[in-house]
Specification:
Chain lengths: 134, 134
């Protein structure tokens, strides 16, 4: 799997997007994508082929709400691009991961899935398909 | 600045290193480097030109101890390689950053510095020089 992005939870994308671009001199932010399954909006900042994904809740109860409330937001997960999401998710399950979100369409029409590992220090791994999944 | 690594705080590098290599299929871990200024040991896992830096305290009181105690460890900071660390740190100060660690020699003989941003969702940015700083 190829490292793709670091997920960063924020209360409002607008509050941080320009600030991060200015401080880290990243590429401009992508137009926020509304992920109806995850109930969040996400926007990407280009760090040179690796991305920062800013994630804001767009409903009261979302998969990132408790993290946001307990921590105030911040670094949340690592995401990896896989040739075959189903195969990679299956492998990760065999390695002790628990699927918290089965593969479903997300940003850029990609399949995305979240796997939780009690045995990893960062707990949450996202697996995504390559762009323009058919 | 060029994105270089994600810092991950752990209680023991040995506890996670092999596990992460197995799950994420990363490159093998570097031999841990003892950072006497930061009072930590660090080891790097290659994600394909971007690295995971595992950080463990090697003394009772270290810059990562409170984070480790409060969170149990996890994603901690983002690090960027700069052509001129002093110049980049100066720029980041002008942009509101507070220097929590002035540039000093760290892993791979690099100069490293930590800057805290109240205005960023991930708070802590590390600036490092390129390899083999003279």
């Amino acid at each position: 799997m190829k490292f793709h992005h670091v997920g960063v939870v924020v209360d409002k994308i607008d509050r941080y997007s320009t600030q991060i671009q200015n401080i880290l001199k990243t590429g401009t932010a992508s137009i926020p994508f509304e992920d109806k399954i995850q109930k969040v909006n996400v926007s990407f900042l280009d760090l040179g082929g690796i991305y920062l994904e800013l994630i804001e809740p767009n409903q009261r109860q979302t998969p990132v709400t408790s993290f946001l409330k307990s921590s105030g937001g911040g670094l949340h997960h690592l995401a990896f691009e896989a040739d075959d999401v189903y195969e990679s998710v299956s492998e990760l399950k065999q390695k002790g991961g628990k699927v918290v979100c089965e593969p479903a369409k997300g940003f850029e029409e990609r399949l995305i899935s979240f796997i939780f590992f009690e045995s990893l220090p960062f707990k949450l791994v996202e697996v995504i398909s390559k762009k323009k999944y058919n």
